């Protein structure tokens, strides 16, 4: 099946190579819009400071032009210099300035288009993602932030959700996710199948999986720092779109010239009003093996929404203030009658994460500026199960589950440029966490608490990072973070080192080492409800049942680039202590004891990419070995982690010509481990913990995007796309769980969880 597809791509690429000139006509057109057209037409990218393009307009007579001709005309009309960095990248600078000096910021990027355009790898080994500039990725209609990150090597979601990011042996709760400085604790819709962040209003995403800057703390795995646009628009900008699950809209309105603007956005599903085929596929995957069965779907009401707002104000030439808010909300209301019609049941669940943040940036002089921030985040999970019996009347059972987090804090960051080769960042952060949970049961005769807890912790943090460029070939980033917990009268130090150098012209090497600590984490709940969804519980450390989690990570890397080939290889070692689990996570739900342990992860990530004129091809391979060791489990011997994926492979090809984009990707990885169990002489017997493996997982994804202009005079643009996830409808086994019925026979029930089957999706989007 691959041969016709590849021949088709080859034909398109060959025909596309000859298209060196195109027809253009502009009358007093904004320069930024002209640049977007040129990027699409000639498959190039421009880098520039936004202020350079302010009030710049272009007029070009109707005709056939090649790229050099267009750039020459724009230079004459704008007074700007279009400096060619290589065959695909151009820097826009002032003509009177030294091009090498002005384009210096580009040297911070070592790989443009890591997978595709809009994803970059920077010199500090972190990744920068620009969702609104991203080209198509396999299986995605729109640039879902969390699903896009999953396509990077070393990141995997064993349960096939957008939010279940396991980064180099870490768990999802060990990832720090920030939205404009707001810490997010609930990041998804439809029980994690879709990320809760509207990508159409995001300016950039920083993804850091090693060598973490000391300003980030509180998590031991990765950092996902999401930022929206701080730009004051010159005119009202409106965008709206629709796909098979939801509709969204965002608008940016200038209030006072170039000083004050407001940005509003909202996204809501229509799944409670209309259920598309795409929703049916997601529904089957999410609610399999639960009491929410498809036959009762008409009485199951589910929807999700998120909204964001931002006020941007240039108080003066040196001061900028921004106030942001975000709310992610999911609501489930499921009603049904039991099979024997003896009772009416109802599941009500709402999950939300509401947050606010204010930033004040002050530039004191060209070498020193500050950023003062205050944030507030509120996470809430409410679940109520009600069972009303037909006989006797007024007989009922109610079970409720609640989990709440109040996270607030302030921070002050200082940025000081000592010289062209030395910079220093330093600051202070105060964080407060108020976390509680409660499980209660109620009937006409009894009302009692099954489990509850409430805790409060404050953290004082000092941090600093120094940047040294010893020559153009050697770069060192060294820093430390000092955390003090007054409640425990305990302090911890987190050193961080990030070092890279060019061994040869085309070969660079890197090394990172870091220590991190974490006081808030998720565990499996102690009381298991009938609805086996959202059964993770946020808890705070107490130095007893829940120790402070600590991680040490070391990485080495090598990067080689030549003749449009890129090779990127990294190895890592990560050791985490202070983990807490119930044996539910490994064996059964009959042992209520908590167990303290550690994990060790070793692995490598490999990436290779070859760029042609209109075709990009890339291959990634990840190897990971993560072993756990918990007291009083498995005779205190090591055993594989529940989510260990030993080997993962991705092969992708993307084609772009003019306004068309097409991408296809094949994904394969080994199965997760599981524990084999059986009943022998009426006793539950387990084999070696996680000694068995599920079958290998694989799927093929396809995506297509077409960009078009509706009106050149008004600047109205459109985009439409189509994707197919799991094109050949592979039924992958994701998980195997065992439960034991509470009966004398001790019957073992097997619950198999399968992957998402073939799922099409579409989208259409307009920008005014």
Low-confidence stretches: 1-19, 97-107, 526-530, 584-590
Overall form: globular
Number of domains: 2
Helix content: under 10%
Under CATH, the homologous superfamily of the largest domain reads TonB-dependent receptor, beta-barrel domain
Distance between the termini: 41 Å
Helix/strand/pairing category? mainly beta
CATH architecture title of the largest domain: Beta Barrel
Taking the sheet with the most strands, its summary is: 22 strands, antiparallel, barrel
The CATH topology of the largest domain is Maltoporin, Chain A
CATH C-level category of the largest domain: Mainly Beta
Could you tell me the strand content as a percent range?
A: over 45%
Number of strands: 47
Rg for CA atoms = 27 Å
Number of DSSP helical runs: 6
Summarize model confidence as the mean pLDDT: 86
List keywords for this structure.
disordered N terminus, 768 residues
Question: How would you portray this structure in words?
Answer:
This protein has 768 residues and is mostly beta strands. It folds into 2 domains: 95 residues, Phage tail protein beta-alpha-beta fold; 596 residues, Maltoporin, Chain A, CATH 2.40.170. It is built from 6 helices and 47 strands. The strands form 10 sheets. The protein has a 22-stranded antiparallel barrel. Strand 37 and strand 38 form a beta hairpin. The radius of gyration is 27 Å and the shape is globular. The N terminus is likely disordered.
């Amino acid at each position: 099946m691959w041969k016709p597809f590849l021949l088709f791509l080859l034909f398109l690429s060959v025909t596309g190579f000859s298209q060196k000139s195109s027809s253009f006509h502009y009358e007093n057109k904004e320069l930024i819009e002209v640049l977007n057209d040129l990027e699409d037409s000639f498959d190039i990218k421009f880098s520039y400071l936004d202020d350079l393009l302010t009030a710049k307009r272009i007029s070009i007579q109707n005709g056939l032009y090649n790229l050099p001709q267009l750039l020459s005309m724009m230079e004459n009309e704008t007074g700007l210099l279009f400096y060619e960095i290589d065959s695909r990248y151009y820097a826009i600078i002032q003509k009177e300035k030294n091009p090498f000096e002005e384009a210096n910021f580009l040297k911070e990027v070592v790989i443009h288009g890591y997978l595709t355009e809009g994803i970059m790898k920077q010199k500090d080994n972190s990744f920068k993602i620009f969702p609104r500039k991203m080209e198509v990725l396999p299986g995605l209609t729109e640039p879902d932030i969390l699903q896009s990150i999953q396509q990077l090597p070393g990141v995997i979601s064993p349960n096939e959700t957008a939010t279940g990011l396991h980064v180099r042996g870490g768990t999802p709760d060990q990832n720090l996710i920030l939205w404009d400085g707001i810490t997010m604790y609930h990041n998804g819709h439809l029980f994690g199948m879709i990320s809760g962040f509207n990508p159409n209003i995001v300016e950039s995403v920083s993804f850091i999986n090693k060598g973490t800057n000391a300003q980030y703390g509180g998590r031991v795995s990765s950092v996902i720092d999401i930022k929206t646009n701080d730009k004051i628009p010159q005119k009202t900008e409106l965008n709206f779109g629709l796909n098979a699950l939801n509709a969204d809209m965002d608008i940016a309105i200038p209030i006072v010239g170039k000083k004050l603007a407001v940005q509003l956005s909202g996204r809501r599903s229509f799944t409670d009003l209309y259920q598309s085929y795409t929703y049916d596929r997601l529904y089957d995957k999410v609610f399999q093996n639960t009491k929410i069965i498809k036959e009762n779907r008409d009485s199951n009401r589910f929807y999700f929404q998120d909204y964001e707002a931002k006020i941007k104000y240039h108080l003066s030439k040196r001061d900028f203030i921004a106030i942001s808010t975000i709310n992610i909300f999911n609501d489930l209301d499921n009603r049904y009658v039991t099979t024997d019609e003896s009772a009416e049941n109802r599941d009500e669940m709402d999950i939300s994460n509401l947050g606010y943040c204010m930033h004040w940036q002050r530039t004191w002089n060209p070498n020193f500026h500050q950023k003062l921030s205050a944030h507030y985040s509120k996470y809430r999970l409410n679940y109520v199960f009600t069972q009303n019996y037909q006989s006797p009347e007024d007989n009922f059972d109610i079970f409720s589950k609640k989990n709440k987090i109040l996270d607030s804090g302030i921070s002050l960051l200082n940025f000081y440029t000592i010289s062209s080769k030395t910079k220093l960042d330093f600051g202070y952060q105060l964080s407060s966490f108020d976390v509680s949970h409660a499980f209660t049961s109620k009937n006409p005769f009894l009302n009692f608490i099954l489990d509850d807890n409430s805790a409060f912790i404050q953290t004082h943090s000092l941090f600093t990072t120094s940047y040294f460029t010893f020559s153009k070939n050697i770069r060192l980033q060294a820093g430390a973070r000092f955390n003090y917990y007054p409640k425990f009268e305990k302090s911890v130090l987190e050193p961080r080192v990030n070092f890279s150098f060019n061994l040869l012209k085309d070969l660079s090497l890197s090394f990172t080492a870091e220590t991190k600590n974490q006081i808030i984490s998720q565990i499996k709940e102690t009381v298991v409800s009938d609805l086996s969804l959202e059964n993770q519980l946020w808890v705070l450390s107490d130095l007893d049942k829940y120790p402070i989690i600590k991680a040490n990570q070391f990485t080495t890397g090598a990067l080689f680039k030549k003749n449009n080939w890129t090779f990127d290889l990294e190895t890592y070692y990560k050791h985490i202590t202070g983990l807490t689990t119930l044996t539910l996570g490994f064996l059964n739900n009959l042992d209520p004891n908590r167990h303290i342990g550690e994990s060790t992860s070793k692995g490598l990530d490999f990436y290779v990419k070859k760029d042609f004129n209109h075709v990009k091809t890339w291959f990634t391979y990840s190897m990971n070995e993560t072993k756990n060791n918990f007291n009083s489990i498995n005779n205190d011997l090591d055993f594989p982690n529940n989510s260990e994926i030993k080997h993962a492979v991705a092969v992708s090809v993307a084609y772009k010509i003019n306004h068309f984009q097409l991408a296809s990707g094949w994904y394969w990885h080994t199965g997760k481990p599981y524990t084999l169990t059986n009943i022998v002489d009426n006793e539950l017997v387990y084999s070696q913990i996680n000694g068995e493996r599920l079958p290998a997982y694989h799927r093929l994804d396809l995506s297509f995007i077409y960009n078009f202009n509706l009106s050149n005079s008004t600047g109205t643009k459109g985009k439409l796309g189509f994707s197919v996830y799991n094109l050949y409808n592979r039924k992958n086994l994701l998980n195997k769980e065992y439960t034991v019925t509470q009966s004398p026979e001790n019957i073992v029930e097997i619950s198999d969880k399968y992957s998402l089957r073939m799922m099409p999706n579409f989208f259409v989007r307009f920008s005014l």
